[in-house]
Amino acid sequence: MQLYDISMVNEGLEFDADVLVIGGGPAGTWAAWNAAQAGASVVLVDKGYCGSSGATAPSGTGVWVIPPTTEDREEAKAQREALGGYLADHDWMDRVLDRTWSNMELIERWGYPFPREDGETVRRSLQGPEYMRLMRKAVARTGVKILDHSPALELLVDGSGNVAGARGVQRQDERDWTVRSGAVVIATGGCAFLSKALGCNNNTGDGYLFAGEAGAEFSGMEFSNQYAVSTVFGSVTKTAHYSWAVFTNEAGEDIKAVKDGHHSAATIGRTLIHGPVYAQLIKAKERPEVQAFLRLAQPNFFLPFDRSGINPFTERFPVTLTLEGTVRGTGGIRITDKTCASTVPGLYAAGDAATRERICGAFTGGGSHNAAWAMSSGSWAGEGAAGFALRLGASRKSRRLGGAGTPASFSESQAAIAAVKNEVMPLEKNLFRTDAGLRASLAVLNGLWASVSSQRGVDGAGARDAQRSREAAALVATARWAYTSALARKESRGMHRRTDFPQSDPLQHRHQIVSGVDKIALRYQHVVPRLPVGDVVTA
Amino acid sequence: MIELVSDARCISCNICVRICPTNVFEARSDAAPVIARQNDCQTCFLCEAYCPVDALFVSPDAHRHVDVSEQQLSERGDLGSYRRALGWSSGGDPAALHEKTHALRLLVGEGAIG
């Protein structure tokens, strides 16, 4: 690592703050708000626009929020224990339920228009556009400096390896930015590999790359292959409404993909490999009151149908599976304590960027758990980062900083992105994993990493090229961590499905931790089950 | 993907340029913004939600360009339909106020995942 005085090489914007938050979705905004409440000065940067960026903003979502009465909570925690392969942790679930409860009260106080029933507010779900517009206002009110359209390119570290800021570009103004800070919160979301899953195309794993370059560890990266049902033509990957669907094959036969309100991506995937699959929300066909509720719950679920002249209740329509990667998958930056600290001093992680195994284990949990996790982990990461930065005090300003990454614009970004997609999107490679398939993909991905990490800058490259080349590197890095971890888990558990090892193996009831960008290391971390381990259900 | 910026309706406020999360639009002086990077559009419909004059149209087709006719979209009521559905049109109540997700969950069972 080369240390240099960043003020010598940068003619763009410069800020000094206690806490830098990278990412302006729910996790990032909760981190920024809580860091500011704790007395820290805060800068928040977003690749796009804080308020519309990320998977939450365009979505209606339920929230995993349970009143603090014991019976309900025990049931809520137990509900998905088996689906999650018994990798979740009850203490973390309790903490998330507590924090989500109090955060939802704050959201109401800030003016969110929750519905009322029998005179009582019902705080059970959030409309993304409304929620994220409100979060931006709440954050701005606390004095947080928000930089939109400002993708980060790398973290800054001091001579001891402490994370101490980041630098990036402003893509609408063609200038650089640098933020020197006491601590950094990575809230860049998961990685959906540019699949156009709803709201996910800014979520390219950039934060994983930055954290990995700084030396952070990742946990559960094998749980990175969540696929969502969507129409073949559209982008809407909100899937709760498919509880009302029947899925059929070309011949019109029910493929029995829905059981107990869950639809099975594996059942749909097996049929899709051989031919088209259709869905129809036929269970609500005769129920106009349900149809009206469904429209209010997720207005843009119906927009594509209305605009295409399809009635999803009376007609069947072709569907596909769209990769949501670690957005709904649970892998991410390993957090080591209750402040969501990573293994690198000064670096914190929240939301989909952090591992969500703590509450979901190996199973997605869906939107409601993700929403609860984002607002809880965001809050803790913000408080933790503020505490870390304030403890450093004025001493942090005298540090010499250098870049932790190797950002450079190179000309082959689009080709590299297409090549990664070709390894992670096909159902045969990622939904149904095998030893041979994973090894073949890793050979390709390792070759791609050699080329994206050794490229040097091209002349005349702009901010957008710089962003794209880092996205390409992040996609390759994320895919390598995911497949390295998937190859090592020689069993099926949760969403990780090995066709060569279809059963779960009690001896592999453990976390898998990966780290490193050039050479990837893998280690195991054992879990102490609180409950007797029963049969593990593959989702 | 985004297919239309209506010159007739646009007031050049450039809100869409600012709020598009994938930076699809390019502002112009004294004219409506242009769709400069259509392939970067992620079909999230949020530009429509934020446009104060319903000048934008996002086609439901996320993966390919389709030709649209402004007159036809206008006649069908497609311009501004998402903003109306959210209750973000002027004078509207936020749709969130009328949500019945709780009732829906009881109908379908708490197991629904999404």
List the helices and strands and how they pair.
The complex is a heterodimer of chains A (539) and B (114).
Chain A: H1 6-9, E1 13-22, H2 26-37, E2 42-45, E3 60-62, H3 70-79, H4 90-109, E4 116-117, E5 120-121, E6 125-127, H5 128-141, E7 145-147, E8 152-157, E9 163-170, E10 175-186, H6 206-214, E11 217-219, E12 226-231, E13 246-249, E14 258-259, E15 262-263, H7 265-274, E16 277-280, H8 288-297, H9 299-308, E17 317-324, H10 325-328, E18 332-333, E19 347-349, H11 357-360, H12 366-392, E20 402-403, H13 413-424, H14 427-430, H15 435-454, H16 463-488, E21 510-515, E22 521-526
Helix pairs in contact in A: 2-5, 2-12, 4-12, 6-16, 8-9, 13-15, 13-16, 15-16
Chain B: E1 2-5, H1 15-19, E2 25-28, E3 31-35, H2 46-50, E4 56-58, H3 70-76, H4 81-86, H5 101-108
Antiparallel strand pairs in B: 1-4, 2-3
Which stretches of chain B of 5+ consecutive residues score pLDDT under 50? 109-114
Q: Biggest β-sheet of chain B: count, sense, barrel?
A: 2 strands, antiparallel
Number of strands of chain A: 22
Oligomer: heterodimer
The SS-based structural class of chain A is alpha+beta
Q: Number of helical runs of chain B? A: 5
The structure class of chain B reads alpha+beta
Question: What distance separates the N and C termini of chain A?
Answer: 43 Å
Cα Rg of chain A: 22 Å
Rounded mean pLDDT score of chain A: 92
What is the name of the CATH topology of chain B? Answer: Alpha-Beta Plaits
H/E element order of chain B: EHEEHEHHH
Helix percent band of chain B: 25-40%
- Helical stretch count of chain A? 16
Q: What is the CATH first-level class name of chain B?
A: Alpha Beta
Parts with pLDDT < 50 across at least 5 consecutive residues of chain A: 1-10
Provide the gyration radius of chain B in Å: 16 Å
